[in-house]
Amino acid sequence: MKRFLRVGNTIVAMFCCCVLCCVACGEVIPEEEMTESGLETSTTSTISIKKDGTILSKIVEAFTEQNYYEVDGLKTMIESSIAEYQTENAAAQVKLKSCKAKGDNVNVEMEFGDYQTYAGFNDESFFAGTVQAANKAGFDLNMTLKGAQAENTTISKQDLLGMGDNHIVIMEPSAEAEEITQTVRVECFDDILYVGDGVTVTGKKSADVTISDGYKVIVFR
Question: Which of 77, 107, 108, 101 is nearest to 28 (CA)?
Fold first, then answer.
């Protein structure tokens, strides 16, 4: 992935611009006036795969050098990025659900209509669908995966192709991603069965993906 989300990659730049503008103008937003929700306490960026095909993403970024955030300015910039993308891709469904800040973190939540929109908007290799569909889409499934509950259990390509109706998430982080986001949590809508290298199961339906080169794979029911 190119830093988990393309918009995530621009959030830092957007945010810095907002802070600089606020400082230059002598305007800041007091911490007590910031928007709040339970999500702001989280420090983990997340991708959620929904049964209807939608992809929800939450970006959590820490800015320890600043105490105030121009949330409205950041929100406007992200909305402009979405509008620009939808001008080029009229059928794409992208929504900014929230942009909130508290303390040292800024939280951005977005919703994508399908995995193609997520991949296109973020300009990265990403797939979420059935194993059969991934194979038809041309993804290289020549890999060895380990069992989510029993790591000594492994499957190879032929085993995987035999699970055509099960679901798979394929992500390909880039070197850029390593600079800021070290781990991304993936939440699936059903139980995880197998995972590839760089993926650590954290629950029946969730796993942490370490940002590094190569495909990161999760197979679930």
Answer: 101
Structure tokens at 127: 């797939």
The 10s digit of each residue's pLDDT in 171-194 is 986 555 545 557 899 999 999 999
Two tokens at 95?
């929504």
First vs last C-alpha separation in the chain = 24
Spell out the SS3 assignment of the chain.
Answer: CCCCCHHHHHHHHHHHHHHHHHHHHCCCCCHHHCCCCHHHHCCCEEEEECCCCCEEEEEEEECCCCCCCCHHHHHHHHHHHHHHHHHHCCCCCEEEEEEEEECCEEEEEEEECCHHHHHHHHCCCEEEEEHHHHHHCCCCCCCCEEECCCCCCEECHHHHHCCCCCEEEEECCCHHHHCCCCEEEEECCCCEEEECCCEEEEECCEEEEECCCCCEEEEEC
Contacts of residue 168, defined as CB under 8 A and 6 or more positions apart, other chains included, come to 127, 128, 129, 130, 131, 134, 160, 217, 218, 219, 220
The full set of domain ranges for the chain reads 6-120, 126-220
Radius of gyration (Cα) for the chain, nearest Å?
Answer: 18
- Per-residue pLDDT tens over the stretch 8-53: 554 544 444 443 333 333 333 333 333 333 333 456 899 999 999 9
Residue 74 has a pLDDT of: 79
Q: Which residues of 55-74 are buried (b: 16+ CB within 10 A; e: fewer)?
A: bbbbbbbebeebebbbbebb
